[in-house]
Amino acid sequence: MTIVLNHTIVPVADRHRAAQLLADLLGVEAAPPAGPFAPVRVNADLTLDFDDRSGARPGHYAFLVDDAVFDAALAYAERTGLQWSSAPHVIDHQINHLSGGRGVYVLDPDGIAYELFTAVP
């Protein structure tokens, strides 16, 4: 059997806001609430379950995306005023070009860094 990460819990301050932000960033739909979670199905194998019962904690979630998703996500970040950068722990509004692709880190208000990149390092 192949091992696949199926879901993970993301601790946030407001589960509905955080789920909608990621859904909008990636161009996917936020799913209806499931118990205490606000799920976002990222692809056929992975769901992120946003949970606000214990408060927010910073995190880092990295997504390999195609150019169209990358461009749409960066436009969304710019349009909504989200901070973004070429590297973690800085805000420079630059794109990195590691491994021949493009990459950015988009920061949500809970301190979560969503890394989007177009080439595998």
From TrEMBL:
Gene3D superfamilies: 2,3-Dihydroxybiphenyl 1,2-Dioxygenase, domain 1. It comes from the Bacteria. InterPro entries: Glyas_Bleomycin-R_OHBP_Dase, VOC_core. Residues 4-119 form the VOC domain. This is VOC family protein. It comes from Dactylosporangium maewongense.
